[in-house]
Inverse folding.
């Protein structure tokens, strides 16, 4: 009886009796969720346009952040370092297309997935060899003062992160829907061969989409790097982005955002209200269980395209 | 001209269905067995057994298990580490509670436990497919590792939180624990792997294996011709997890001697996945080749600079190793996406004509 009470009643009583604390938990969950979404976005972009499940996105986040920090440590001003980092990510996209994707056209999804894991190893090793493997603080001048709104403690930094995340999504949505390149990207995502036959240059498209994913990775890298320092563990946030991605659906940009928010909030609430009951540190697996529960009802994720199967 | 079946007549159904239909294959396998059972234990050093051969056997076991699931039944799984942990921790739990039970039986029992857990996490596979299924198995991975970390009952309330292999013997020979000779552990691992490789080979040639492959190739079509996808997938999950559980038990009891939950992290799951993809999806032979490749490559890489007399800072060397590992994987996937097993097959086909051009 006592355990049932502790599991099913006490947490809700807590939530209702301390509404301000509860709001704070939800808000901090939402803001963490935005950070997850930023990483998940990169996955969605590449999956949409090339059907590749790019496991190297986490490594790309790390690599972009490492490049930025490394350049800044060598005395390059922030704006120049940012520009150079973008250039590096574009070069990376070209190299990946030239030496990897081009040779793996028409392979099965799992082979491409494996190849991106190989790429992740390569990027991590290369980034750390060039820029060193110690933890580096990253400061691009985002203010991080704390302030209160209606008794809820907020951090400016998180708001900036949320704002840049939303801006990024808005820009990407416009880009995908209203520009010629965006339309070409969607065509490629739909059917490689059909896209080729109407004259869409597949190779250019891949370079573009990997560059965009690299750019998104850079933004995510800046946000995560400013928060927790640029270090190897940055590449592991890819694992955090997976449940987000799966919850939202692989093919949906809004899905990545909504998924991120749900996972962020769910994780925080579970950790704070239920975590202590079962030993804590449940953040590691809770997101997956949550995504799993959602998937049982919607196997294609919340916003994924409906899976139609034919014989 | 030497490697061919011409002149070898099959006169019974049994020979018609044998795993190795060509004489030369059988001789080759026999020679390999003699080397594995006699030559290696007599000549190999402690280092070779402990750092190379035993890990290869342990990971071969895991790779066969995962290959049954991913390569034959087509269900992508990233939970190998978790299922291995079930095997290891259950073995520890059972053998410390009942020390008199033969350790091999304990291995089998904990393999069955892992199979049960795999069954449970396989249930979502009916509705969830492809990469989406990876989440279900990742949930297994993270949840199981977390559970073995948090619930102290699993490691007998040891303050260190690790499990240590207690000394156990079979036929009067010590095979686990600190006093067990590397040779003894090697032989036990070898016997287990060979037995279960033969079992796996026969599973995939039989009705179960064919139903797995039907589901893999197209599950709706399989359902239409009367295969129950749910049952088939669950069986695949259970059998695969049984193998992984055995591998986990072997890993702690025959190889490492003691381990924490860290040893069964997501890295391990990826490693095993690498093995079956480099080795060849849907091939038992490929599991052997893949495990050898992935276990051997880092060891080889870390020894190469020294043999050339190059001195490098340790972390630079580590980074270069990681890079080379990554690029070799990409290279292999580009050159031969069907894995080492396919290369093996191509070699055999070439051998039929060799040394003549056609």
């Amino acid at each position: 009886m006592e355990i049932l009470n502790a599991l099913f009643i006490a947490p809700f009583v807590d939530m209702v009796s301390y509404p301000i604390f509860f709001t704070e938990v939800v808000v901090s969950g939402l803001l963490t969720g935005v950070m997850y979404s930023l990483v998940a976005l990169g996955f969605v972009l590449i999956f949409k346009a090339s059907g590749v499940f790019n496991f190297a996105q986490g490594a790309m986040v790390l690599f972009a952040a490492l490049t930025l920090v490394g350049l800044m440590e060598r005395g390059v001003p922030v704006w120049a370092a940012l520009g150079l980092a973008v250039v590096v990510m574009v070069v990376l996209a070209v190299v990946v297309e030239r030496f990897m994707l081009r040779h793996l056209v028409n392979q099965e999804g799992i082979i491409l997935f494996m190849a991106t894991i190989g790429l992740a190893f390569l990027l991590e090793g290369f980034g750390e060899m060039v820029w060193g493997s110690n933890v580096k603080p990253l400061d691009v001048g985002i203010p991080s003062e704390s302030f209160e709104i209606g008794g809820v403690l907020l951090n400016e930094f998180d708001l900036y992160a949320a704002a840049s995340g939303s801006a990024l999504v808005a820009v990407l949505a416009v880009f995908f829907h209203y520009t010629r390149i965006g339309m070409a990207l969607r065509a490629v995502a739909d059917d490689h061969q059909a896209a080729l036959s109407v004259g869409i240059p597949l190779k250019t498209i891949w370079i573009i989409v990997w560059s965009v994913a690299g750019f998104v990775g850079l933004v995510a890298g800046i946000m995560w790097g400013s928060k927790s320092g640029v270090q190897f563990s940055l590449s592991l946030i890819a694992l955090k982005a997976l449940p987000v991605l799966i919850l939202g659906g692989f093919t949906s940009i809004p899905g990545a955002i909504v998924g991120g928010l749900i996972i962020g909030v769910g994780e925080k609430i579970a950790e704070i209200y239920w975590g202590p009951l079962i030993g804590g540190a449940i953040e590691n697996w809770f997101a997956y269980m949550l995504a799993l529960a959602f998937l049982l009802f919607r196997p294609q994720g919340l916003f994924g395209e409906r899976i139609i199967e034919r014989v | 001209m030497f490697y061919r079946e011409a002149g070898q007549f099959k006169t019974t159904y049994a020979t018609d269905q044998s795993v190795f239909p060509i004489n030369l294959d059988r001789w080759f396998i026999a020679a390999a067995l003699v080397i594995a059972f006699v030559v290696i234990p007599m000549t190999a050093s402690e280092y070779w057994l402990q750092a190379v051969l035993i890990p290869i056997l342990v990971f071969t076991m895991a790779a066969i298990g995962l290959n049954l699931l991913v390569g034959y039944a087509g269900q992508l799984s990233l939970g190998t580490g978790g299922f291995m942990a079930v095997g290891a921790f259950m073995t520890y739990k059972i053998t410390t509670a009942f020390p008199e039970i033969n350790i091999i039986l304990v291995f089998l029992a904990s393999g069955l436990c892992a199979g049960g857990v795999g069954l449970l996490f396989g249930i979502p596979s009916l509705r969830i497919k492809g990469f989406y299924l990876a989440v279900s198995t990742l949930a297994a991975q993270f949840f199981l590792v977390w559970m073995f970390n948090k619930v102290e009952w699993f490691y007998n309330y040891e303050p260190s939180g690790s499990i240590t292999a207690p000394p156990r013997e079979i036929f009067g020979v010590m095979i686990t624990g600190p006093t067990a000779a590397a040779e003894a552990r090697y032989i036990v691992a070898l016997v287990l792997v060979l037995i279960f490789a033969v079992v796996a080979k026969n599973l995939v040639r039989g009705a179960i294996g064919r139903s797995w492959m039907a589901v893999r190739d197209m599950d709706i079509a399989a359902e239409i011709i009367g295969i129950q996808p749910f049952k088939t997938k669950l069986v695949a999950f259970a059998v695969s997890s049984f193998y992984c559980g055995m591998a986990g038990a072997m890993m702690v009891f025959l190889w490492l001697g003691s381990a924490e939950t860290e040893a069964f992290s997501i890295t391990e799951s990826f490693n095993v996945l690498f093995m079956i993809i480099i080795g060849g999806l849907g091939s038992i032979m490929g599991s052997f080749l893949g495990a050898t490749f992935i276990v051997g490559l880092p060891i080889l890489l870390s020894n190469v600079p020294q043999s050339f007399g190059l001195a490098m800072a340790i972390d630079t060397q580590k980074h270069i190793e990681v890079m080379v590992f990554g690029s070799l994987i990409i290279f292999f996937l580009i050159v031969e996406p069907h894995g080492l097993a396919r290369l093996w097959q191509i070699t055999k086909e070439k051998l039929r004509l060799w040394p003549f051009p056609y």
